[in-house]
Design goal:
Elements lengths: L19 E5 L15 E3 L10 E3 L4 E3 L3 E6 L2 E6 L4 E16 L2 E15 L5 E8 L2 E6 L6 E5 L12 E4 L5 E9 L2 E8 L3 E2 L2 E2 L5 E8 L4 E7 L5 E8 L4 E7 L21 E7 L6 E7 L5 E8 L5 E7 L18 E7 L6 E7 L5 E8 L5 E7 L23 E7 L5 E7 L5 E8 L5 E7 L25 E7 L5 E7 L5 E8 L5 E7 L19 E7 L6 E7 L5 E8 L5 E7 L16 E7 L17 E4 L2 E5 L7 E7 L4 E8 L2 E5 L3 E9 L4 E8 L1
Antiparallel strand pairs: 1-7, 2-3, 2-8, 3-4, 4-5, 5-6, 7-8, 8-9, 9-10, 10-11, 12-41, 13-14, 14-17, 15-16, 17-18, 19-20, 20-21, 21-22, 23-24, 24-25, 25-26, 27-28, 28-29, 29-30, 31-32, 32-33, 33-34, 35-36, 36-37, 37-38, 39-40, 40-41, 42-43, 43-46, 44-45, 44-47, 47-48
Length: about 675
């Protein structure tokens, strides 16, 4: 089972941060496990050079001169002077760590460390036991327990996240992490939300949390009508929100490009806030006499703000690529100055059908990539141009992508669709300048390889209403790799992120009881829709993990991001009364949520030789019968997270141990040096 933990940053001149941990013995089967493993992990560059070894969850670190450990939120230390460090009792496993800064594979683990003086004498021994981290000194004093063993940390954030909402309806539609902050956007019908009172009719909001889940500020934005914040982008200088409003008195600011309501059913809006205080800096409508909505927003390195969405208005200002309304509903993009006081360029994007933009992001050269969904044929190259791949629509609707230059001229455009119905839900620009998209489809992977290569983690439609998909697109518009992600039910991918080495984390929701997964917080679908989290290799050929989270209702994620300790935050909306591992219960009809995920891991074990197995499982009891050549022996039982669950130093012939439901790695050390290993699964 995946256990969610809150690693604490080390109060040292240089920091040790916990990482995603993957344990691998061999290739019998895979299970997701916890990074709360009781091992010392060697440092081969994943931490600062000050650290020689550290515990997997970051609460103990070994330096060249001594040991430091975390107790009650304070770091304590002991120095052993001029001593050498000798690791012992190496785990029958290796560990790989994948963090935004890099990938470190094949790291060794030990249960015990010895400090020896120049004369070879042992000065101290630190070892992980069933009690926790124990330290023995050479002076003969009783062993000290420096860190007590614990099944789970306490407190709402330590247990995995929190509900966000009040007595009404509250929904999180977008999230971005930046440094030590989590920024959230959405809408609320609650009369007040964290002390902020709305103007009525439902308001948009922006909330800032610290990396530990503490509320920093909350701001409601709206007028007397319905106001919905649908998108968010954040830098250290400003936050930009975009959305939809039906308020004719939306609180715009003077001097912006459109301070007055444009008419029609709804207008889009763009608002900027101060990231430190949440105070509004500027606000403007974007709309005309039809129905207008902004669904995505991005901030360029020079402060430019791009907002995009969909429009039914034929008279919007359009100065760049497409200056005329194309059909029934078009995508629309506007690029504004940081102050919202001037329009740099704007353009429709669409054909004679229905077109909408769901994602936008700036590439390093200042060009803008957009993605969305279209039913329009490519008449007059309305959707696709200057690119061979994806130049033709398959079966509507299809996803589409386009890249527009710094002045709004189109550099390329392409469809991204299949012989079924396809929709793109998110777009993000990775650290390496690649384009990461997610979506959902009910189309199959024909010879044209619509969504996945033959070697992809999932190379075809699994059935049901929808499958999710994830794809990495090169800046020139061609696909690097793509994969389906789903089972026999309904699955949608809604957001993704990529680390510095190309590993991709994707979230969404699923109703598939057979969603391919290793092990997760939930062994089965808990409600109507559950949150899913997948982890893909840089080439898309391997899905390392697939995890489920949720309660009895609908749990719908809308954003994903890194936190400073390399854990992941996922945000969205839920109708579940309770939602493990979130603390507490839902407040209104539905609430927002932020889920903190850490400790993704995979442990695989060899199948032992059936003729030599001294272990037998009867119900929940593990029976051990020692062969003659293995007497006496020492027995150890570990959780698949590496935690020492049971240890008996002296077994002469037989033993019987009751085990709770779960999976365990069993090791029997024979007195003559032989060793037996097995994996035991207790139903």
């Amino acid at each position: 089972m995946l256990v969610l933990i809150t690693p604490t940053r080390m109060a040292l001149p240089r920091l040790v941060v916990p990482c995603y941990v993957f344990l691998t013995l061999s290739m019998l089967f895979d299970m997701t496990v916890s990074t709360a493993a009781q091992w010392f992990i060697e440092n081969r560059g994943q931490w600062d050079t000050l650290v020689r070894y550290a515990s997997a969850n970051g609460d103990a670190a070994v330096t060249p001169t001594g040991l430091r450990w975390l107790r009650g939120g304070t770091w304590e230390q002991l120095s052993f002077g001029d001593a050498t460090i000798e690791p012992t009792e190496q785990a029958a496993a290796h560990v790989s760590m994948y963090v935004p800064a890099g990938a470190f594979e094949g790291l060794r683990l030990w249960r015990c460390l010895l400090w020896r003086g120049r004369d070879g004498s042992t000065r101290a021994i630190a070892a992980w036991t069933h009690r926790g981290l124990e330290l023995r000194l050479a002076d003969g004093s009783p062993p000290r327990v420096l860190i007590e063993q614990r099944a789970a940390l306490q407190g709402s954030w330590a247990r995995g996240g929190r509900f966000l909402g009040s007595s009404g309806r509250d929904s999180i539609t977008a999230m971005q992490t930046l440094g030590g902050a989590i920024y959230l956007a959405g809408w609320t019908s609650s009369a007040s939300l964290y002390g902020s009172s709305g103007a009525g009719g439902g308001d948009g909001f922006c909330i800032k949390l610290s990396s530990t889940g503490d509320l920093q500020w909350a701001t409601l934005i709206g007028g007397s009508g319905e106001d919905v914040a649908l998108a968010l982008a954040a830098t250290s200088e400003r936050i930009a929100l975009a959305g939809r409003t039906r308020s004719t008195n939306f609180p715009t600011t003077s001097g912006t490009v459109q301070p007055s309501y444009g008419g029609g059913d709804a207008d889009g809006f763009v608002v900027t806030l101060d990231p430190t205080s949440g105070v509004r800096s500027a606000a403007t409508y974007i709309g005309g006499d039809g129905r207008d909505e902004l669904r995505t927003v991005a901030i360029g390195s020079d402060g430019r703000i791009a907002a995009a969405g969909t429009t039914e208005t034929a008279t919007l200002v359009a100065t760049a690529h497409q200056q005329q309304f194309g059909g029934l509903e078009d995508g629309y993009i506007v690029v504004l100055a940081p102050t919202l006081a001037s329009r740099i360029w704007s353009s429709y994007y669409g054909g004679r059908g229905f077109d909408s933009i769901a994602g936008a992001g700036f590439l390093p050269d200042g060009s803008l990539v957009i993605a969305g969904t279209t039913t329009s044929p490519n008449t007059g190259q309305a959707i696709a141009a200057a690119l061979g791949e994806g130049s033709q629509r398959a079966t509507p609707p299809d996803g589409f992508l386009a890249r527009l230059g710094a002045s709004g001229q189109r550099l390329w455009g392409r469809y991204y669709g299949s012989d079924g119905q396809d929709s793109i839900t998110s777009l993000s620009i990775t650290q390496s300048g690649m384009i990461l998209v997610t979506g959902y489809t009910n189309g199959t992977n024909t010879a044209q390889s619509y969504f996945a290569e033959a070697q992809a983690a999932q190379n075809n439609f699994a059935g049901g209403a929808w499958d999710g998909f994830v794809a990495v697109i090169r800046p020139e518009g061609t696909r690097l790799w793509g994969s389906y992600y789903g089972g026999s039910g309904s699955d949608r991918c809604t957001a993704a992120l990529m680390d510095a080495h190309g590993y991709v984390y994707v979230t969404g929701w699923t109703t598939s009881s057979d969603l391919p997964r290793e092990e997760s917080e939930n062994a089965a679908i808990a409600g109507a829709e559950d949150v899913m989290l997948g982890f893909f290799s840089p080439d898309g050929r391997r899905r390392y993990a697939s995890l489920l989270y949720g309660g009895s209702g609908s749990d719908l994620p809308s954003g994903i991001g890194w936190l400073p300790d390399s854990t992941i935050a996922i945000a969205g909306s839920t109708t579940s009364e309770s939602f493990p591992p979130l603390d507490g219960q839902r407040s209104g009809d539905f609430d927002g949520f932020v889920l903190r995920v850490g400790g993704l891991g995979i442990l695989s074990a060899d199948a032992p030789n059936a003729e030599s197995i001294p272990f037998r499982l009867a119900g929940s009891a593990l029976h051990v019968l020692l062969p003659e050549e293995c007497r006496p022996a020492r027995l150890e039982i570990y959780t698949l997270g590496g935690m020492l669950y049971f240890s008996d130093q002296q077994i002469s012939s037989t033993a019987e141990i009751e085990l709770p439901a779960g999976a365990y790695a069993v090791r029997l050390h024979c007195g003559r040096g032989a060793e037996f290993r097995a994996v035991v699964v207790v139903p």
